[in-house]
Design goal:
Blueprint (H helix, E strand, L loop, with lengths): L1 E13 L2 E10 L4 E5 L6 E7 L7 E6 L2 E5 L12 E5 L6 E10 L5 E10 L6 E4 L13 H16 L27 E4 L3 E4 L2 E5 L5 E3 L4 E9 L3 E7 L4 E8 L1 E2 L6 E2 L4 E4 L10 E8 L2 E3 L1 H5 L5
Parallel strand pairs: 10-11
Antiparallel strand pairs: 1-2, 2-3, 3-4, 4-7, 5-6, 5-8, 8-9, 11-12, 13-21, 14-20, 15-16, 15-19, 16-17, 17-21, 18-20, 21-22
């Protein structure tokens, strides 16, 4: 049985967009789960409820494993555990496997079924410079090396939680386009899936870090232009790109709201804007599903 805790409805304004997360407390386990919906591209926050008889809880969802333990000195309340439902996931019933460990060494095992619903995504056609759909041969090696670099950066999971409180839009004064998951056709030939959201703003507008973390990439890449990747810890990364100018460098620690770059139109872009995407343990999720979660 699942208890729906409606009083914990959490609302955040994100540049004119309001997201809502609901919280459930399964009777079978001492955890709570918060999410906007159980659909492709959504983030889920798991927390350990106060229970002195619990030493720790291990969660497993697909290939994602999270550990919940009682409050640590560096975090008010139990540290957060974020899970992601990947953008490409088909409708199905996922089983959240829960292992409960007691101080006396006893272990209990629970499975919580999560029904992943269908979600329809928009589609569009875009015209970009020919070199952005059919790169010159001389650029192919560069593109390959860049893809390997990004893959390596995103594979390194920091054990500590580096973020501070809720996530926010990198451009909170501007309205995001509803184009997460958009099916795109570039120049009538090249198809791709848009795994983030775009936020249009005047060229030169300063974009802010969505949360505290460490800069793990700050460079110009062929397709995404000037790009910043922030590691927020525990396998959570934000990826912002198409900038005209970077204001941070690799290795910097940034605060939430700190300026990281200036809006531009570099790479495969049709005008000044910011592309913002989020990965949670390799799951591609809508950034605003992360913003909606009641992180403290």
């Amino acid at each position: 049985m699942i208890s729906w805790v409606l009083p914990l409805l959490f609302l955040i304004s994100t540049g004119g967009q309001v997201n809502a997360a609901k919280t459930i407390e399964p009777a079978e386990a001492p955890i709570s789960l918060s999410f906007r919906s159980l659909q492709p591209g959504e983030a889920i926050l798991a927390r350990l409820r106060d229970d002195a008889s619990v030493k720790r809880v291990v969660l497993s969802l697909g290939g994602q494993v999270r550990v919940l333990e009682p409050a640590a000195e560096n975090f008010p309340g139990s540290p957060p555990a974020l899970l992601g439902i990947d953008l490409g996931m088909k409708p199905q019933v996922l089983h959240l496997k829960i292992k409960i460990e007691r101080p006396d060494g006893k272990k209990e095992f629970v499975e919580l079924p999560l029904s992943i619903e269908t979600k329809k995504f928009p589609s569009t056609r875009l015209d970009v410079a020919p070199a952005m759909t059919n790169p010159p041969a001389k650029e192919m090696e560069t593109i390959r090396r860049e893809a390997e670099l990004v893959s390596e950066v995103l594979s390194l999971v920091s054990p500590d939680w580096l973020a501070e409180g809720p996530f926010q839009s990198p451009l909170p004064a501007y309205e995001p386009f509803p184009n997460f998951g958009q099916q795109r056709i570039y120049n009538k030939t090249v198809a791709s899936v848009h795994s983030g959201v775009d936020i249009s703003a005047p060229r030169g507008t300063k974009a802010a870090a969505p949360n505290a973390g460490r800069i793990v990439l700050a460079a110009r890449l062929y397709f995404s232009g000037y790009t910043v990747i922030i590691d927020h810890g525990r396998g959570v990364f934000t990826y912002c790109c198409h900038f005209d100018e970077l204001l941070v460098k690799r290795g910097d620690r940034v605060r939430k709201g700190q300026a990281i770059a200036k809006v531009g139109s570099t790479g495969r872009s049709t005008g000044p804007h910011l592309h913002w995407s989020v990965l949670i343990l390799s799951a591609r999720v809508d950034p605003f599903s992360l913003v909606a979660l009641p992180l403290i």
